[in-house]
Amino acid sequence: MNLIEVRDLCYTYPDGTIALNGVDFDLGESETVVLLGANGSGKTTFVLCLAGLLPVTSGSIHIIGERLTKKTAAVLRGELGLVFQDADDQLFMPTILEDVAFGPLNRGVGREHAELHARLALEKNRYARQFRAAALPSQRRRKAPGRYRRRPCHES
Fold first, then answer.
1. What pTM does this model have?
2. Which residue, 4, 15, 14, 8, is CA-closest to 47?
3. Which terminal Cβ of the chain has fewer Cβ within 10 Å, N or C?
4. If DSSP codes are grouped into helix, strand and coil, which group holds residue 104?
Protein backbone atom coordinates (compact mmCIF):
# COMPACT_ATOMS: atom_id res chain seq x y z
CA MET A 1 0.00 0.00 0.00
CA ASN A 2 1.21 3.50 -0.80
CA LEU A 3 1.29 6.10 1.94
CA ILE A 4 0.17 8.75 -0.55
CA GLU A 5 -1.66 8.29 -3.85
CA VAL A 6 -2.58 11.25 -6.02
CA ARG A 7 -4.59 10.88 -9.23
CA ASP A 8 -5.26 13.55 -11.86
CA LEU A 9 -4.88 16.34 -9.30
CA CYS A 10 -5.81 19.82 -10.51
CA TYR A 11 -5.81 23.10 -8.62
CA THR A 12 -6.79 26.50 -9.96
CA TYR A 13 -6.33 29.62 -7.85
CA PRO A 14 -9.33 31.95 -7.45
CA ASP A 15 -7.77 34.40 -9.94
CA GLY A 16 -7.86 31.65 -12.62
CA THR A 17 -4.17 30.70 -12.45
CA ILE A 18 -3.81 26.96 -13.08
CA ALA A 19 -1.22 25.73 -10.59
CA LEU A 20 -1.62 21.94 -10.94
CA ASN A 21 -2.99 20.14 -13.97
CA GLY A 22 -3.38 16.35 -13.99
CA VAL A 23 -0.73 15.44 -11.39
CA ASP A 24 -0.26 11.74 -10.55
CA PHE A 25 1.99 10.79 -7.64
CA ASP A 26 2.66 7.76 -5.43
CA LEU A 27 4.74 7.58 -2.27
CA GLY A 28 5.58 4.14 -0.93
CA GLU A 29 6.20 3.27 2.71
CA SER A 30 9.99 3.49 2.77
CA GLU A 31 10.47 6.04 0.00
CA THR A 32 11.97 9.50 0.34
CA VAL A 33 11.06 12.14 -2.22
CA VAL A 34 12.39 15.58 -3.09
CA LEU A 35 10.16 18.04 -4.93
CA LEU A 36 12.27 20.16 -7.26
CA GLY A 37 11.15 22.88 -9.59
CA ALA A 38 11.42 26.53 -10.49
CA ASN A 39 9.67 29.26 -8.49
CA GLY A 40 5.98 29.19 -9.31
CA SER A 41 6.01 25.62 -10.63
CA GLY A 42 3.44 24.40 -8.08
CA LYS A 43 5.54 22.64 -5.44
CA THR A 44 4.04 24.49 -2.48
CA THR A 45 0.52 24.31 -3.93
CA PHE A 46 0.92 20.54 -4.32
CA VAL A 47 2.05 20.08 -0.71
CA LEU A 48 -0.71 22.37 0.61
CA CYS A 49 -3.24 20.22 -1.29
CA LEU A 50 -1.69 17.06 0.23
CA ALA A 51 -2.06 18.58 3.69
CA GLY A 52 -5.70 19.44 3.00
CA LEU A 53 -4.99 23.15 3.37
CA LEU A 54 -6.10 23.92 -0.20
CA PRO A 55 -9.21 22.30 -1.67
CA VAL A 56 -8.43 20.46 -4.92
CA THR A 57 -10.27 21.62 -8.04
CA SER A 58 -10.48 18.03 -9.30
CA GLY A 59 -8.76 14.69 -8.91
CA SER A 60 -8.18 12.66 -5.77
CA ILE A 61 -5.71 12.34 -2.92
CA HIS A 62 -5.51 9.26 -0.70
CA ILE A 63 -3.36 9.32 2.44
CA ILE A 64 -2.73 5.95 4.10
CA GLY A 65 -5.68 4.56 2.13
CA GLU A 66 -8.08 7.32 3.25
CA ARG A 67 -9.53 9.68 0.64
CA LEU A 68 -8.69 13.26 1.54
CA THR A 69 -11.87 15.30 1.95
CA LYS A 70 -12.73 18.36 3.99
CA LYS A 71 -14.00 16.02 6.71
CA THR A 72 -11.03 13.62 6.74
CA ALA A 73 -8.43 16.41 6.43
CA ALA A 74 -8.92 17.45 10.06
CA VAL A 75 -8.36 13.87 11.26
CA LEU A 76 -5.38 13.29 8.98
CA ARG A 77 -3.73 16.52 10.16
CA GLY A 78 -3.45 14.91 13.57
CA GLU A 79 -1.16 12.31 11.97
CA LEU A 80 0.72 14.41 9.41
CA GLY A 81 3.02 17.37 9.61
CA LEU A 82 4.03 20.07 7.18
CA VAL A 83 7.42 21.76 7.41
CA PHE A 84 7.85 24.98 5.46
CA GLN A 85 10.98 25.77 3.49
CA ASP A 86 11.55 29.08 5.26
CA ALA A 87 11.98 28.64 9.01
CA ASP A 88 10.48 32.10 9.60
CA ASP A 89 7.21 30.78 8.16
CA GLN A 90 7.34 27.58 10.20
CA LEU A 91 8.86 28.41 13.57
CA PHE A 92 7.18 31.15 15.50
CA MET A 93 7.53 30.38 19.19
CA PRO A 94 10.67 31.27 21.18
CA THR A 95 11.76 27.62 21.62
CA ILE A 96 11.56 24.35 19.70
CA LEU A 97 9.62 22.82 22.60
CA GLU A 98 6.95 25.53 22.40
CA ASP A 99 6.74 25.13 18.62
CA VAL A 100 6.12 21.39 18.96
CA ALA A 101 3.57 21.93 21.76
CA PHE A 102 1.67 24.52 19.70
CA GLY A 103 -0.27 21.91 17.68
CA PRO A 104 -1.72 20.05 20.67
CA LEU A 105 -2.47 23.36 22.43
CA ASN A 106 -4.32 24.54 19.35
CA ARG A 107 -6.42 21.36 19.47
CA GLY A 108 -7.49 22.07 23.05
CA VAL A 109 -4.99 19.91 24.96
CA GLY A 110 -3.94 21.40 28.31
CA ARG A 111 -0.56 23.11 28.54
CA GLU A 112 1.05 20.53 30.85
CA HIS A 113 -0.14 17.59 28.74
CA ALA A 114 0.90 19.31 25.48
CA GLU A 115 4.39 20.03 26.85
CA LEU A 116 4.77 16.42 28.01
CA HIS A 117 3.84 15.10 24.56
CA ALA A 118 6.12 17.64 22.89
CA ARG A 119 9.05 16.52 25.06
CA LEU A 120 8.34 12.86 24.27
CA ALA A 121 8.14 13.60 20.54
CA LEU A 122 11.40 15.54 20.60
CA GLU A 123 13.17 12.84 22.62
CA LYS A 124 11.88 10.19 20.23
CA ASN A 125 13.36 12.21 17.40
CA ARG A 126 16.68 12.78 19.21
CA TYR A 127 16.28 16.48 19.88
CA ALA A 128 16.32 16.07 23.66
CA ARG A 129 19.55 17.98 24.25
CA GLN A 130 18.42 20.87 22.07
CA PHE A 131 15.34 21.83 24.04
CA ARG A 132 16.05 21.08 27.71
CA ALA A 133 14.53 23.56 30.15
CA ALA A 134 15.02 27.04 28.71
CA ALA A 135 15.94 27.77 25.12
CA LEU A 136 19.57 27.94 24.16
CA PRO A 137 20.62 31.16 22.41
CA SER A 138 20.76 29.32 19.06
CA GLN A 139 17.15 28.24 19.54
CA ARG A 140 15.81 31.71 20.20
CA ARG A 141 14.18 33.26 17.21
CA ARG A 142 13.82 36.96 16.64
CA LYS A 143 10.39 38.27 15.91
CA ALA A 144 10.55 39.55 12.34
CA PRO A 145 9.43 43.15 11.80
CA GLY A 146 5.76 43.36 10.99
CA ARG A 147 5.04 39.82 12.11
CA TYR A 148 2.71 38.96 14.92
CA ARG A 149 3.15 36.28 17.52
CA ARG A 150 0.67 33.50 16.88
CA ARG A 151 -1.10 31.97 19.83
CA PRO A 152 -3.07 28.73 20.07
CA CYS A 153 -6.83 29.11 19.76
CA HIS A 154 -7.47 27.07 22.91
CA GLU A 155 -5.02 28.01 25.63
CA SER A 156 -5.67 26.41 28.99
1. 0.59
2. 4
3. N
4. helix
